Amino acid sequence: MERYRTRPAQYGTRRDRPRPPLPPQVKRGADGRPARPARPPGQQRPPGQQRRPAPVRRPAAAPAPAARGLPNPRLTGLGSGLFCAAVMFLLGALCSALFGASLTAYGVLFLPVCVLTALWVRPGDLMTAPIVVPIAFAVGLLPLADGDSGAGGRLMGLVTALATQAGWLYGGTLVAGVLVIARRIRLMHRRRTAGARQPAA
User: Fold this and answer.
1) pLDDT in tens, 171-200
2) Coil, helix or strand for 67?
3) Residue 61, class by beta-carbon neighbours within 10 Å (0-12 exposed, 13-18 middle, 19+ buried)?
4) Domain residues of the chain, as ranges?
């Protein structure tokens, strides 16, 4: 007779067998990074230990400004007039003492004073530079003017000096006017560029 093979009896079915525990899933926060496990209730942070603050990024330090060869003050209209008149009076006295009242040396020194006056006046008072320059030229001629004793003779010497040195007077005034116009155009260009960069409302 044929014998049928029988399988050994198994205690319980597959469903009844205990399944192995699944690995714990790492909790993730809203940003996708794994969250730190919570501290046990009995384990607290020591009182002396504090949480380290987040590092703060400091902006990069601005580069050191380049050394300037000349000072760059900003004079008002009145300040530029006083500056130019005082400097020209001192130069006139210097020319009278050292150069024998040379009007040519005085005219040559007048040009750089006109340049400084036009460059140092503030943008709001640019148009005052070509006005104060001729006045300062006349003030500086007082120590150089030749004439008889008295106010009348000194005045006639001043008029004569102005007539003979009109070329230096016109040249210095022209230099100051050209520099003022150039600064005015540059200032208007900057304002237009700044207005174009602003977004439209």
Assistant:
1) 999 999 999 999 999 989 888 887 777 655
2) coil
3) exposed
4) 77-197
